[in-house]
Amino acid sequence: MAKLILQKPKGFYDSFYRKPGDKENTHYCPGCGHGIIHKLIAEAIEDFGIGDRTIMVSPVGCSVFVYYYFNTGNIQVAHGRAPAVATGIKRANPNSIVISYQGDGDLAAIGGNNILQAANRGEHITVFFVNNAIYGMTGGQLAPTTLPGMKTSTTPYGRDIQNEGPPMKVVELLSSLDGPTYLERTAVMSNASIAKTRKAIRKALQCQIDGLGFSMVEMLSACNSGWKVDPKEQYKWMEEMMLPTFPLGVVKDVREEREGWFRETRTMTDEAIKQELDLTMPEPTIFPSELKKGSYHNPSIKLAGFGGQGILSAGAMLANAGMEQALETSWIPSYGPEMRGGTAYCFVNLSNKPIGSPTVTNPDVLMAFNRPSLEKFEAEVKPGGLLMYDSTIIDIEPTRKDIEVLPVPATQIAEDLGNTRMANTVMVGAYIAQTGIMAPAAIDQTLPLALKRKTMVDANKKALAAGVDYVMSR
Ligand SMILES: Cc1ncc(C[n+]2csc(CCOP(=O)(O)OP(=O)(O)O)c2C)c(N)n1
Ligand code: SF4
Ligand SMILES: [Mg+2]
Predict the structure, then answer these.
(1) Phi and psi angles of residue 434, each rounded to the nearest 5 degrees, phi first
(2) Which residues' Cβ are closer than 6 Å to ligand 2?
(3) What is the pLDDT of residues 397-429, one digit of tens each?
(4) Which residue among 108, 139, 295, 315 is least packed, with the fewest CB closer than 10 Å?
(5) Which protein residue's CA is at the shortest distance from atom 7 of ligand 2?
(6) Is the CB of 136 under 6 A from ligand 1?
(7) Hey, what CATH class is 33-257 in?
(8) Which residues have CB under 8 Å from 361's CB, separation 6+?
């Protein structure tokens, strides 16, 4: 009897450690085509032995979390921009294998011109295009690939081709360009079609490995949630609804006619770049504060709270001042799906060395502005790190013993100054005083950049000073 092997391919992480909650299963709806397609790609990455040089570019759409799953380099990009980012990665690292993974809303609607231009340039990237004929993630709106007569939340009477035009046939469209090398449309709906998709995925990747140019597989894929179809009926639905509009098969394959080539990169020293750009950069003055107390160098900082508490502005205060001090800095707001629940996060890095990744998973410093953030992120702080929290509004205490904990009654201090909304600035003041990472003057100078309301600059300078005073007088 055949043995069933329940094991993840090595192209996946053994455990999806980035994913909140369940680390074993994907976040997709049962029956969703994305999960099957992920597995086929992960298996190919393992079999080709390219995991250590593959970079997956995740789109916006249900597959926004591609980076939860693939044990490769990962980057998540703005809606529709995956081919542009993939182009940059590939050109800077010609030996890498760059995969742009995109849905039909992402690729054919908002990113329509991006894919057209990348294909036309014949970029040496591989695009896996998941066509489920709908915007799955946002609740089932019309996509360029939605089928005639198909009901969506934005076409409740069905797609009317006199109104919305006929479905866009992307591989056929791209085949009219000279750029692409290999274009195929497959489906993910039966064992035979999955086997063909598996083969096409491998052909497309091989095309890139051999330096032959742009390759793309369009995969028809089920979205029973978006279609409002019983999962048991989804493959019948695909056969009846999708196949007449989207014929399967190879649409263009000129691999035999093309010769492989790899772009050369030019490596330049920092000095040469400065000379070429005629830049006279100030030498970094590293952590020049007179308030310097401890060893808090090169921190990765997570700021977390509710939307409206000025989390992003607090991060911007630190990042702007860091730039002013000629430090390497990064600032990334993060309010993705949590936006609906009103949570806002911000990641900041300040460093005297180049910053590898701007995301902050395990921060050196956590600034928690509300109780859910403290509860959620306390465990993530690096041992020996610093946890600051607004003790006016957080009514619990952190439990970790291996980190430094600094309660700051930021909201109370801000209220005493006449405006509780400046609690964020008080916290920044407390932070720079506690760590000595930069002088208050550095933040003062750049405050107008971080604040939306310029009339609030003077008041915020006072709030900053009050935060500093709070720490210095402890
Ligand atoms: C700039 C921008 N515009 C709109 C959105 C909202 N949005 C999120 S996902 C999505 C469509 C995704 O559809 P698709 O690419 O087909 O992916 P699927 O979920 O179907 O796999 C849209 C419009 C956004 N996140 N960003
Ligand atoms: S909404 Fe559709 S595309 Fe998104 S996970 Fe569910 S089935 Fe998949
Ligand atoms: Mg879609």
Answers:
(1) -65, -40
(2) 28-29, 32, 34, 62, 132, 136-137, 223-226
(3) 999 999 999 999 999 999 999 999 999 999 999
(4) 295
(5) 223
(6) yes
(7) alpha beta
(8) 18, 380
